[in-house]
Amino acid sequence: MTTISKGSSRTTPCPRCGHEAWPIAYGMVPPSVQEENPRVVYAGCVMSEEWRPDPATGEPRYGTPEWECQKSGCRHRWW
Ligand SMILES: [Zn+2]
């Protein structure tokens, strides 16, 4: 669960294409907080589990994405 506080929005480069990616916030976020943190993806209460191969072992690992690439056509999500 991501907790958003004022001024906490930060971005990171997408590992796939290098475009700017935004953190994904889950749960109910008041509109005032969203306005203060525009560079955040607000996913609401829908938690989606996705899997990826473990970088070390290749085993599938499940988790909740924390980042979403903002480039249209990429939209890579990872954690
Ligand atoms: Zn990307």
What do these coordinates show?
The structure is a single chain. The chain has 1 helix and 7 strands, in the order E-E-H-E-E-E-E-E. By secondary structure, the chain is mainly beta. It has one domain. The strands form 2 sheets. Strands 1, 2, 3, 6 and 7 form a 5-stranded mixed β-sheet that branches. Strands 4-5 form a two-stranded antiparallel sheet. A hairpin with a 7-residue loop joins strand 6 (67-69) and strand 7. The longest helix is centred in the middle third of the chain and has 6 residues, at 31-36.
Notable features of this structure?
79 residues; mainly beta; five-stranded mixed β-sheet; two-stranded antiparallel sheet; 1 helix; 8% helix; binds zinc ion
Average of per-residue pLDDT values: 87
Task: Please write the string of helix (H) and strand (E) elements.
Answer: EEHEEEEE
Class by alpha and beta content? mainly beta
In total, how many beta strands?
7
The total number of structural domains is 1
Report how far apart the termini are.
12 Å
The largest pleated sheet is described as: 5 strands, mixed
Q: Rg from C-alpha positions?
A: 13 Å
Estimated share of beta-strand residues: 25-35%
Task: Tell me the number of helical segments per DSSP (H or I, 4 or more residues long).
Answer: 1
Task: Give the names of the bound compounds.
Answer: zinc ion
Task: Flag low-confidence runs.
Answer: none
Helicity, as a percent range: under 10%
